[in-house]
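User: Run a structure prediction on this.
Assistant: Running it now.
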Amino acid sequence: MPHEVVTVTWEGRPVPALIPAPLGDVGPLGADAQRDAARAEGVLTAGVPQHDARLEVAARLLLRAEGVASSRIEAIHAPAELVAVADVDPAVVGPATEVADNLRALDSALAQRGPLTFDVLWQWHRILMSSADLDAQFHGAWRDRVGWVGGPTPRHAAYVAAPHDRIDPLMRDLVEYANAPAHEPVVAAALVHAQFESIHPFADGNGRIGRILIGWMLRRHLGLAVPPPVSVAFLRDVGGYQAGLTRYRTEGPDAWVSWFASTLEQAARAATGTLVMVAALADSWPTRLVGVRSDAAAHALVAQVITHPALDVATAVELLGVSAPTARAALETLADHGILRPADVPNRGPGRPRAWWVAGELLDLLTR
């Protein structure tokens, strides 16, 4: 799949840029890459037992690990408890809000039942960029400037992407392939991600949207309810991840597909272990309430924690249908028994700060 190199102008000086070959031109892969992809697919489709409701709920929580890790790859860091609060409280500001926007964009992608379109991609990007320091005209729109990866300018970049006037045809080819790939699902997810990163169609957020695309591809073409958090595995080997994308552009897809498939397999195996630990942790919570009156609101609230890892009094009132004092007492009881802990949320303005409690052990398990 030969790529085209063209010249773009940056501040009056010529810079070479790469136009990746269409995905439709990618032929059969080598035997090693096909074997690695098939093995990864086998691990992925082993799946979560559909009859185990606890594991299904825990699997949804892995989306949090995916979104947090994807943000960390882009050097966007925030404490897990603050991200959990930002996910439900739009008043939180700072990096935690950007990570929460990543979680929301990922949720939107996995809820997308129809085909991939430009409008769908632009909507994901608008969600992702909701709190970002990016001019609003570039929210949900292709870039109109030179795009590059690594380095302060295109002249010193590791890679310069295609000119903006070539984005539309390149992305049409990508969307067409993503909806009806010519390869098996793991290979197709690897190719779509690498091609998207090579096109670099947005002014910002390309890495995170590209990793969201992996989850969308695996859900659509493998039927996975919740794809494993592959960004967690990427984060453990960022150098290998970046090198793999470079090899895709310079050598062809085989080495990249093999690395991607092996990393995806690791992510799936790790996710299985995490699911079991999350379910065991949730099972332990009611047993910690020994000695608490059986009719206390804490017993009803503990069943809500796994789906609401950040809670305040108003949320507890809504979940339980009780008064605010009763809700606060339930939250404090769960904190006294180590199920919740008070969250350290910075005061966002005058007045009394809103108090939050988070499932600390659960968040630590998902993000460590």
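The beta strands are 4-10, 13-19, 148-149, 159-160, 310-311, 341-342, 357-358.
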